[in-house]
């Protein structure tokens, strides 16, 4: 399917149906990510198991289930802005996601499928790290969570409460404006209205 055909199809869709599809996709991204905490899907190739790999795997799984025709062309853009099946964390942030902000108000407006992003400076160069946001539909009964792969070979996918990350994590991992390693919150470009 060409990009032009996809664009025309999405434009022809009613706003309500596009919003409903996005809601289904967000919910499924969250479910796929959380399922990896319990047991990593063997379909997720071990060489792809890192933070960006979790994002790619969860999004592809959601689209495969609810909008498979979108997968006729790759979801991601490479470092030159061309569609591609692979993108590392830095490339995902630069080309396939849009920054939302770094403040508390932005944190409160996050939805499932949004990202929390960090850049840690190391001797070998910068390391980018992504965490997927899982926000319950009923915020009164469950906290907003983050799901992430720590990047180490053989490591398990982990989850935690976003607010605990804000208040209890070492400063370099807190998603707060005072942390220079915190890049901000990001949203998939296709979900921007």
From TrEMBL:
Keywords in alphabetical order: Signal
A Pfam short name: DUF1175
Higher taxonomy: Bacteria, Pseudomonadati, Myxococcota, Myxococcia, Myxococcales
Cleaved signal peptide residues: 1-18
Keyword Signal: yes
Keyword Signal: yes
Protein name: DUF1175 domain-containing protein
